[in-house]
Amino acid sequence: MKPEELLCILSRAARLKTTMRHCYTAADRKESVADHSFRIALMAMLLQGEEEFWNMDMDKVIRMCLIHDLGEAFTGDIPTFEKTSADTEKETALFLDWVNSFPSPQKEEWLSLLAEMESLATPEAKTYKALDKLEAVISHNESDLSTWLPLEYDLQLTYGKENVEFSEYLKALSNCIDQWTKRKIETRS
Questions:
Q1: N or C: which end of the chain has fewer CB within 10 A?
Q2: What angle do CA 116, 67, 144 make, to 5 degrees?
Q3: Residue 56 CB coordination number (10 Å)
Q4: What pTM does this model have?
């Protein structure tokens, strides 16, 4: 990859630093897509030490986490409860057009990762997807209740549940997050 190509890709990816999600951080600012992607990659790195994940390619999971929302550098972030299939198709098409412009071997690696992520057939893809969902719930728990939409009180306890079912560790983590959510909701009274 030529240095100019690297810089071009990094410039596009940098848009995620200023692409805001609808969730607020604990510091009362909107969370960026880059914040979210960084933290799920960190979550994957931390899981490498857990026995359940020893036979998994966690470096691949980390790479999936880092690239999973780069399509939002073209479309912005649309909350899951507002995103339509047309929105998803547009984001995917723009992202794939961009990735197809990459030089080899980066193009082939990214396309392979994206296909694996889409199919959710491997333990690595399932892990990335579960972390993506769990991190969103964690972020909402860290934000002030005044920033929550009414539908999020229920969504916090259901979002991503099907994505953790394959893993005892991730089910336990999800249950721990649920307890945190319930304690947080109780404070609004």
A1: C
A2: 115
A3: 19
A4: 0.94
Token pair for residue 145?
């209740």
Decide the pairing of beta strands 20-24 and 30-32: antiparallel
Long-range contacts (CB closer than 8 Å, 24 or more residues apart) made by 70-73: 70/12, 70/13, 70/16, 70/95, 70/98, 71/95, 72/16, 72/19, 72/33, 73/12, 73/13, 73/15, 73/16, 73/19, 73/33
pLDDT in tens, 63-113: 999 999 999 999 999 988 899 999 999 999 999 999 999 999 999 999 999
Question: How far is the CA of 57 from the CAs of 62, 96, 147, in angstroms?
Answer: 9, 24, 37
Domain annotation covers residue 172: yes
The domain of 87 spans 15-186
Domain-embedded: residue 5: no
Q: Which two tokens stand for residue 129?
A: 């997807």
Q: What is the DSSP string of 98-113?
A: HHHTSPTTHHHHHHHH
Work out the number of other CB atoms within 10 angstroms of the CB of residue 188.
9
The CATH number linked to 152 is 1.10.3210.10
| Helix or strand (DSSP H, E) at 20 | strand 20-24
The whole-angstrom separation of Cα 53 and Cα 44 is: 10
Instruction: Please state the domain count of the chain.
Output: 1
